[in-house]
């Protein structure tokens, strides 16, 4: 088949068979990530662009811009792009292990519930997902830079040493300076594994200036991650929350690193997933 112009169609092009007297044609969306949607490619492109640019998207904005006709379509589109990010992050993990820190670096660790804010928490939640699990976050910070580094965010059953120490050992390089809240179940295990461990006591005024600044990093980061998840209602189910955490990781680990920016990276990852 050959790509032919067809002005009357929504995508302006279609595939047409070149044999004589054969009338067969196919949509150019056939057998691609776009197949099942009835959204024009031009609108898909707008959606892909916005998804790559930031997580602060509201469905209403897309409806108003006529990118998709219904919120169901939008949800499905967003899900497809999230899956692209999940696959890309899994690939990165297998390849490089997603490691952070090092002799001159600090990693701030913390745990947090990603519950809904009260005002969104009305009514019963679908699926009986109780959100008792913790999101365990590790965030690499550099003292020379004010910007927060790359996060690793994992959903854990409990915040005990058995759950968290293996995650730290896997993602944080030996010799790193690990900063956490004052009391933690894993505190004794860290020096044995070759980390320098510092704790921050929030109730004490004379916090060490540098570690204090680092914990501010993670507190700011937590706030923005939670805002993203809440805005997108990404904690309705456990799987949804896991996917959203992946997307947050994708933005800093991959999206921000591509020579053509997050859009370039997203297109690259879409191509890889949908060969
Ligand atoms: Zn034919």
Describe the structure.
With 275 residues, the chain is α/β, with parallel strands linked by helices. The protein has 3 domains: 1-30, no CATH class; 40-97 and 237-275; 100-236, Nucleotidyltransferase, domain 5, CATH 3.30.420. Helix content is 41%, strand content 16%. The chain has 8 helices and 8 strands, in the order E-E-E-H-H-H-E-E-E-H-E-H-E-H-H-H. The chain has a 5-stranded mixed β-sheet with strand order 6-5-4-7-8, with helices on both faces. It has a 3-stranded antiparallel β-sheet with strand order 1-2-3, with no helix packed on it. Helix 5 links the parallel strand 7 and strand 8 (196-200). Helix 3 (71-96) packs across helix 8. It is elongated, with a radius of gyration of 22 Å. It starts with a strand and ends with a helix. Bound molecules: zinc ion (ZN).
Question: Briefly, what is this?
Answer:
The chain contains eight helices and eight strands, in the order E-E-E-H-H-H-E-E-E-H-E-H-E-H-H-H.
Helix-strand blueprint:
Blueprint: E1 2-5, E2 13-16, E3 25-27, H1 41-53, H2 59-64, H3 71-96, E4 106-112, E5 134-141, E6 148-156, H4 161-171, E7 177-181, H5 189-192, E8 196-200, H6 209-231, H7 238-253, H8 261-273
Parallel strand pairs: 4-7, 7-8
Antiparallel strand pairs: 1-2, 2-3, 4-5, 5-6
Shape: elongated
CATH architecture of the largest domain: 2-Layer Sandwich
CATH topology of the largest domain: Nucleotidyltransferase, domain 5
The unique ligands bound to this protein are: zinc ion
Main sheet record: 5 strands, mixed
Beta fraction: 15-25%
In terms of quaternary structure, the protein is single chain
Number of domains: 3
Uncertain stretches of 5 or more adjacent residues: 118-123
> Mean of residue pLDDT?
82
Instruction: Find the structural class using helix and strand composition.
Output: alpha/beta
Count of individual helical segments: 8
How are helices and strands ordered from N to C? EEEHHHEEEHEHEHHH
Strand order of the largest sheet: 6-5-4-7-8
CATH class of the largest domain: Alpha Beta
Give the number of DSSP strands: 8
| Terminal Cα span | 18 Å
Query: Level of helix content?
Result: 40-55%
What is the alpha-carbon Rg in Å? 22 Å
């Amino acid at each position: 088949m050959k790509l032919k112009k067809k002005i009357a169609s929504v995508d302006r092009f279609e595939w047409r068979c070149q044999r004589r007297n054969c009338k067969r044609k196919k949509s150019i969306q056939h057998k691609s990530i776009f197949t099942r949607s009835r959204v024009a490619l031009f609108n898909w492109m707008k959606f892909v662009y916005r998804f790559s640019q930031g997580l602060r998207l509201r469905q209403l904005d897309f409806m108003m811009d006529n990118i998709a006709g219904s919120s169901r379509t939008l949800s499905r589109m967003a899900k497809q792009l999230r899956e692209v990010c999940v696959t890309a992050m899994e690939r990165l993990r297998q390849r490089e292990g997603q490691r952070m820190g090092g002799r001159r670096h600090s990693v701030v660790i913390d745990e947090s519930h990603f519950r809904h804010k009260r005002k969104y928490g009305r009514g019963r939640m679908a699926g009986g997902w109780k959100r008792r699990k913790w999101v365990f976050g590790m965030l690499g910070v550099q003292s020379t830079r004010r910007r927060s580094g790359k996060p690793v965010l994992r959903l854990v059953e409990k915040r005990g040493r058995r759950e968290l120490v293996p995650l730290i050992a896997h993602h944080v390089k030996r010799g790193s300076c690990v900063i956490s809240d004052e009391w933690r179940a894993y505190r004794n295990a860290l020096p044995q594994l070759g980390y320098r461990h510092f704790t921050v006591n929030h109730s004490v005024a004379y916090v060490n200036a540098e570690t204090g600044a680092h914990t501010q990093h993670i507190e700011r980061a937590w706030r923005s991650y939670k805002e993203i998840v809440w805005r997108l209602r990404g904690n309705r189910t456990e799987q949804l929350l896991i996917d959203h955490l992946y997307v947050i990781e994708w933005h800093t680990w991959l999206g921000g690193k591509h020579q053509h920016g997050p859009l370039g990276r997203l297109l690259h990852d879409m191509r890889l997933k949908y060969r």
